Amino acid sequence: MGSNQISRANHKPRFYPHLVLLWFPRGGGAASFTTEPRHSVKVAVFYENLSQRDSIPFLFLPGGYLGRWGEMQTGFRLNLTPIKEPLGFVKVVEWLTAVLAFGTCGGYTGRNVVSIFCGGSSNETLSATLTYPFRLNQELLVENNTALCNRTVPATHLVGDSSSSVEFFVAVAVLAFLYSMVALLVYLGYMHVYRDSDFGPMFDFVLTAVFTFLWLVCSSAWARGLQMVKDATSTAGIESTLALCTDRDVKCEVTDYASMHSLNISVIFGFLNLIIWVGNAWFVYKETRWHSQKVNAQQAAGRGPNPAPI
After folding, report:
1. Mutual orientation of helices 86-103 and 163-189 as an angle, nearest 10°?
2. Other Cβ atoms closer than 10 A to 18
3. What is the pTM of this model?
4. C-alpha angle 7/63/29, rounded to 5°?
5. What is the pLDDT of residue 39?
6. Does residue 31 come out as left (phi exceeding 0), alpha (psi in the -120 to 50 range) or beta?
7. At 99, phi and psi to the nearest 5?
8. 3-state class of 306 per DSSP?
9. Fewer CB atoms near the end CB (10 Å): N or C, the chain?
10. Closest Cα partner for 114 from 149, 144, 138, 145?
């Protein structure tokens, strides 16, 4: 703005992305402040009856606007334009896929029917129940002292515990869902602050990178955990769990499997989220100063050195 004096009538807000400390000298005059170590800007300030001290500091937080008489111009301004851009559109997709990821596995309940064929006597039927969060070692397959194929069978539980992997998967999906909503709120109402500051895009990029890594880990863990559930409730898994099935004249077989389509879909959505968040990281990175500095450096290198004066 230079050192020209600005009147109250035509003083328009201007954004300063860094922490700014203004010092108003006693007796009137221009106040100087620094936005970067190598840049200093003079601002003409009108004030009166300040204080008996030699100077008074005024502190303006990062990401704000220096408006008339130092007001912070950071209010909500609804703007739907970011939704039409990749940055906002991908965030909507992330919000939707996160809902589908935890919605397709949370609250799941299924039942496998195990048929026991007893040689020379009536056949028996058992039920293996599968419920979220798949603590199979707590699911009772046979109650204590149950008579099966003319034999007394002790209490038997299913084998395995996939609760840690599926709960981690759901937790990441819920956190991604919440973060996507908050990010959309910022994009739609505070994009003027987001793009005029260094902190907003950099913070967004770091969190996006963290969620990308979390999606990779939790999706891989849940895919492995789901396979453990399938193995434990298959015919081979039941035969290894129930000692009765090892007898020569007894055959155990799972004759009716619970539908696990929704669980398979949850794994697919987990890895789909990984791909989407990797792509979104690029669009967020383009908003940071790291990208702008790289572009400016490349452009400066392309122009070459300035010609020497004659």
Report:
1. 150
2. 16
3. 0.69
4. 30
5. 36
6. beta
7. -60, -45
8. coil
9. C
10. 149
